[in-house]
Design brief:
The protein is α/β, with parallel strands linked by helices and 319 residues long. It has 10 helices and 12 strands. Helix 1 packs across helix 10 and helix 4 packs across helix 6.
Length: 319
């Protein structure tokens, strides 16, 4: 349509985004095209598309899209985009930060309950028709340390406080938060580790956080504590975590994110003592596309009106 902005939805599930565009009354202002993730933008699309929704892009593509001014990522983690060697300096990049809030805090609580309550073992007892008395560990009164008190961390803190857990954590910007006893700056992470029975990683992957959970950091955790990583796989030095588990310093670890996904079959995490591998279930839920679509359409309207976008990626900070 003449005068309409060309928009490309590069996703296998475009329906929610098309419906959101229609519901927002933006159909007359955009010319929308869809493309499966296995496809590649056509010559015409490379020449004409001004805005794009996508999970990722290969090197060489974005500089060839002469009119592309804005890309909306589909995930909160944006390091794949920032790793592109030819990411155009003038292109606006927005993440889907905040769209995991419906499910991730609940899934982290689920992991905490799995650790503390013997239901999994009881299921195995049932299979063998065996009556075994088992003891559930109270979470009430235990300390939860959250490294990364962003939107998800704050929701988790409120939920954990509601069941009686004491919550401490780190955040780059100071200030009181609901459900959090003490908010520490990142440089005081060691104080969080020293007092936490459970440590949850919700940090982004940046040059300052990658490989930060190393032997020295793990040694500062309480004897017998648990580590839960729902942030990014690159945060942890894999070999150092395995060593901490084998030494008995930590009671266990629940990992939902990894450097390579799916986790290779020969990775030592599969057989390491005390490590539970989750298949990246943390942020997913059946209607997540509709949640991301709300953010995308809000940003699309802002883009068309020339207003500031939401969740703009700070390239210097790395998220």
């Amino acid at each position: 349509m003449p005068g309409s902005a060309r928009v490309l939805l590069w996703t296998d599930t475009p329906a929610a985004y098309l419906e959101a565009i229609a519901a927002a009354g933006l159909e007359s202002r955009v010319a929308v095209e869809t493309l499966a993730r296995t496809g590649q933008p056509s010559v015409e699309q490379r020449a004409e598309v001004e805005a794009m929704l996508a999970l990722a892009a290969p090197p060489g593509l974005l500089p060839a899209m002469a009119k592309l001014r804005w890309v909306q990522g589909l995930t909160a983690g944006i390091e794949g985009w920032l790793a592109l060697p030819d990411l155009p300096a003038g292109m606006m990049l927005t993440s889907a930060r905040g769209t995991h809030r419906e499910s991730m805090p609940e899934n982290i609580l689920g992991a905490l309950f799995h650790i503390a309550k013997p239901y999994a073992a009881i299921v195995e007892d049932n299979k063998a028709a065996t009556w075994t008395r088992r003891m559930a560990i109270p979470l009430n009164g235990q300390t939860l340390g959250i490294l990364g008190l962003g939107a998800i961390g704050q929701d988790l803190a409120r939920m954990a406080a509601a069941i009686g857990m004491r919550v401490v954590g780190t955040r780059r910007t100071p200030g009181e938060l609901a459900g959090v006893e003490t908010v520490y700056p990142p440089e005081r992470t060691g104080e969080v580790l020293a007092q936490s029975d459970f440590v949850v990683l919700l940090l982004p992957s940046t040059p300052s956080t990658d490989n930060s959970v190393d032997a020295a950091m793990l040694a500062r955790m309480k004897q017998g504590a648990w580590l839960l990583n729902f942030g990014r796989g690159a945060l942890i030095v894999d070999a150092d975590l395995i060593a901490a588990m084998e030494s008995g310093h930590l009671a266990g670890a629940v990992l939902d994110v990894f450097r390579t996904e799916p986790l290779p079959k020969d990775h030592p995490f599969w057989t390491a003592k005390g490590i539970m591998v989750l298949p990246h279930i943390g942020g997913g839920h059946p209607d997540r596309d509709r949640t991301v679509a709300k953010l995308f359409v809000d940003n699309l309207r802002r883009f068309l009106d020339g207003n500031a976008l939401r969740e703009v990626v700070d390239r210097a900070a790395g998220y």
